[in-house]
UniProtKB/TrEMBL annotation:
Residues 1-42 form the Core Histone H2A/H2B/H3 domain. This is Core Histone H2A/H2B/H3 domain-containing protein. The lineage of its organism: Eukaryota, Viridiplantae, Streptophyta, Embryophyta, Tracheophyta. The nucleosome is a histone octamer containing two molecules each of H2A, H2B, H3 and H4 assembled in one H3-H4 heterotetramer and two H2A-H2B heterodimers. The octamer wraps approximately 147 bp of DNA. GO terms for molecular function: DNA binding; protein heterodimerization activity; structural constituent of chromatin. SUPFAM superfamilies: Histone-fold. Core component of nucleosome. Nucleosomes wrap and compact DNA into chromatin, limiting DNA accessibility to the cellular machineries which require DNA as a template. Histones thereby play a central role in transcription regulation, DNA repair, DNA replication and chromosomal stability. DNA accessibility is regulated via a complex set of post-translational modifications of histones, also called histone code, and nucleosome remodeling. GO terms for cellular component: nucleosome.
Length: 67
């Protein structure tokens, strides 16, 4: 279980670092879902990217919750 936890943490760190680079490149002060999606496309290989983007898009709300 420890190996799987380390693997997931490593992937999240790579995605966060890449998203920060994308945001910095575009001169944006915050990391949005767009930067995360771009970092997923840059970090993950082929078919895994398609599944990750598809599942992430379904999981993330398209608009903020009502107040």
């Amino acid at each position: 279980m420890s190996i799987m936890n380390s693997f997931i943490n490593d992937i999240f760190e790579k995605l966060a670092a890449e998203a920060a680079k994308v945001a910095r490149y575009n001169k944006k002060p915050t990391i949005t879902s767009r930067e995360i999606q771009t970092s997923v496309r840059l970090v993950l290989p082929g078919e895994l990217t398609k599944h990750a983007v598809s599942k992430g898009t379904k999981a993330a709300p398209s608009s903020p919750p009502p107040r």
